[in-house]
Amino acid sequence: MTQFFKLLRVEQWVKNLFVFAPLFFSGNVTNSKLLIESIFAFVVFSITASCIYIINDYSDIESDRKHPEKRNRPLASGAISKNKALGILGFLIAFATALIFFGQSFFHHSYWKFSAIILFYFVMNLLYTFKLKHVAIVDICIIATGFVLRVLAGGYATGIYISQWAILLTFVLALVLAIGKRRGELINAQISGRTRKALDGYNVQFADIALSISCALAIVCYLMFTLSPEVQKRFHPRVFYTVIFVVFAFLRYLQQTLVYNKTESPTKIVYKDHYIQATLVLWLISFLLQIYFK
What we know:
Blueprint: H1 2-8, H2 21-25, H3 32-59, H4 61-64, H5 74-77, H6 82-106, H7 112-130, H8 138-158, H9 164-192, H10 204-227, H11 229-234, H12 243-259, H13 266-272, H14 274-293
Helix pairs in contact: 3-6, 3-7, 3-8, 7-8, 8-9, 9-10, 10-12, 12-14
């Protein structure tokens, strides 16, 4: 079971929590129907993402075996055979498809937009796996677009409106994480002497500049989001004070990236960095107070 969960990369499902963003920011967390629909969207998106991870690991078996960390992945290490992985992949695709049809009949409204998002995410990541991950800048933009699709999936599954600032903020935030990961890979490549085609269009100096620009854009987008008329009307006008936590979180992330070089896997920061964890908790509490207690 441990190898099965590693194959599905269950720990990466934390990224799919962006599906709940429309529900949270609309102030409808206490709405049981919308909550169930968001959970449904999260499950479908997570299964779809796991399908992509299996395909990626299958196509990269040989290169993963030469990587100091990736060689421990189930397919690269031989813990799970190729045929078994393909069988799991086929089951997951069929299961996700069945879930979508079930959701459409159970929730009694059209899921064609949600289905289109899931299909687009799947096809986009297939192109990324076999070709586009080797094209500099395009690769990180695809990663960032994936997070936008998560938010849109949550919005279409529940029928909740998503503002343009929220979409732009999601894209830029994901871009920060993607660039940080590329920078971490560049640092490791300099130390180990091993590189890969995806890094050919990058160097550390470019990554530092791009990361700084993206962080600044993310802070501006968040500030504009909190000051937008619909957000000011929906929440308390003082919601823009939460930008303090956002600024601190980005500064901490930049410190981890530029000073300690610990960002090859951005999700590890969420799990390990206590400063960012505390900042996220404080931001979450402050936003909950603004949304639900005004």
